[in-house]
């Protein structure tokens, strides 16, 4: 166990544990550390950066929670089913949440940090908060009113999904980006005003970011975590192949891929082919697509069975001479539709949607 850490399941089901005093040197609290204990209040020291999934789940007497002012990550179900919890203040340092799987309590596999804490009524955010993280109040059925501070510019995926009693929502006047499902299932909301500052709405950014979260030394979603295995249908294809001149860095390359070019910080789905001299950066290439010789693809989602022609440039900088096009739904992410061919040498600037026959792209 790491130093200054409370390990997973450390005090789980300690049925008489009512009071806890945590060390100021504590850095993290492991998954299910205090699950279903009768603690009544918890003051989490400001050194704590992470709280694992289900850490205080089912603590029915827990009525007072003070979070670390430096907390960066709280995983799903961490304060789930805390029936006595009525208020919470969220520090501006909070950056992300990872999914968890609890079959006996599951609404679905991701859950939410305060899932099932249905007496939670009052929520405040620390001054200076800029981002409402993913799944923060998902399935927190007691929320009736939420005020998003004017410092907030981004609301991430499913932040308030299925808050079925949520009636009043005041959005930040400086809000710029909302990801998918943020108020999905909030059936009590009758009206909402989206400020003019919002430039990205919906799931395109969410899809791109979810894939990028699979990358890095310590990814948000770790496919190699033996404690949280993901089982999916795999295509019956040969192993991926990297040619003699291939360069691949910080990327996921799945079965059946053949890479002869450069791939950096990208996700290649099954059967993708990257030809010699091609460059793919910050992109998602869906199954069975081909990036031909000399093509450059940057921050783009390429649909399955698509072909990006030789020396095409996708996701490049928009020129002053280019005609205007709408980027409200895409932001700076470029989209290439499934089963289309991008012509050789075509230029598709960032944020454009390319669907052959329906528009998109400029010739040099």
Keywords:
mainly beta; six-stranded parallel sheet; 364 residues; globular
Report on the architecture of this protein.
- There is one protein chain.
- The protein is built from one helix and 32 strands.
- By secondary structure, it is mostly beta strands.
- The strands form eight sheets. It has a six-stranded parallel sheet, with no helix packed on it.
- The chain is globular.
- It starts with a strand and ends in a 10-residue tail after the last strand.
- The model has no long low-confidence stretch (mean pLDDT 89).
| Head-to-tail CA distance between termini | 58 Å
- Helix content class: under 10%
Parts with pLDDT < 50 across at least 5 consecutive residues? none
- The share of residues in extended strands comes to 15-25%
Q: Main β-sheet: number of strands, strand sense, barrel status?
A: 6 strands, parallel
- Give the integer mean of the pLDDT values: 89
Strand ordering within the main sheet: 15-18-21-24-27-30
Our Rg estimate from Cα atoms comes to: 23 Å
**How many DSSP-defined strands?**
32
Structure annotation, total helices = 1
- Structural class by secondary-structure content: mainly beta
Q: What spatial form do the alpha-carbon principal axes imply?
A: globular
